[in-house]
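Working notes for the structural subgroup meeting. M.R. asked for a predicted model of this chain before we commit to crystallization trials. I am recording the input and output together here so anyone reviewing the notebook later can reproduce the run.

Input as submitted:
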Amino acid sequence: MRKIVITLLAAFFAVTLRAEHGFTMYTLGPETILWAVGISPNGRYVSCWLGSGEGSALLDTATGDYYYYNVWSEFDAVTNDGMMIGWGDIGVIGHNPITGETITLDDDAIGKAATTDGKIIVGSVIINGWKQRAFVYKDGEVTYLYEPTTEELGFEPGEGSVASYITDDGKTIIGYVINWTGGSKKIRWTLDEESGEYVFDKIYSRSPAALSHSGNYVVYNASSTTDESGKKLYHIARYNRATGETQEGETSINCSANGIAEDGTVIAIQSSGMQLRRAVIWTPDMDAPDYMANVYPEVPEFAAYDEDDWNYSTGISSDGRYLCGMAWHYIEGDGEYYARRISWVFDRQEYAETSGIHEAPVVKVFDSDAAEYYSLDGKRLAAPQKGLNIIRQNGKVSKVVVK
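Returned structure, recorded in token form:
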């Protein structure tokens, strides 16, 4: 069911604090939460969470306007036209605060993902206040997805099922089934074009963390091994359905992937204990995931947010150009420290075009002490390579020639 509600547009107290090298930080002021939780496939719209009981906001990065939904809610995804997907008032699975359009089901439900045009939404309906049931919403109708049996799963699906991702053609859905103890197994439903129904056809042996909008790329979350020296290593896998190739990224960073673009770029979050959260990226030309602070040294905010141990990368546009995230950053004012809950948006293409590391003068002498090295395309190196390198040391960036 679709209906129109009144939405408040307010841009007068939102502040853009910095826009340089493709990086822009957004804030509503000290002690006020503005956390970006999802970005539209075209990179224009960012859905934001304002805190428990405070509602949600849609940021239009093209205009700088915020559109508010003043109902306790959380929308983790957003379509190309600004329809936020998630949960709000009873039964709400989608809301477009620009047009005021709201999509509401008869039962309490949570929207998880949608096609880029918002015509198909997947998620879960809440049954009896706690059990979930995976659904597909299309053309105003809700269809419940088949829930595998105990025999098919190897455990009893006591707490239900959730649909988490859908490809843009609407043919593939990935979700999971939950047992009584909170354990889960990732599964897949595929559209049978002859019958028009979704058929359960796969249980994943390795847990997929995210799906690109076309479905061509799947990223699998980290498994861990220990090398001969006793060092623990983590493995994220990137699977290309078109080529059938799987690329393993081995890293010492314990991270969880949460998005993948059509070019194979993966975003992830380092997670260690209750507090440590740092933004991680894995582009197609990188051997393994690394901190965004290392990959993009000309954006000091990434390193600063990492120092505060709360820097999430939460969304990536379909083409991999735009990223969004949120951070808990401490600033000093009037002799006190304030926690500023901010959002950030990063344009990788603009960074490549404007970053100072591409404009630094060429020099022929370098000191290897405490230096960081990068190739001309910005890829971090373990040591300088023969030819032209970029060196970052003591806060300065220059180019060096190694013979």
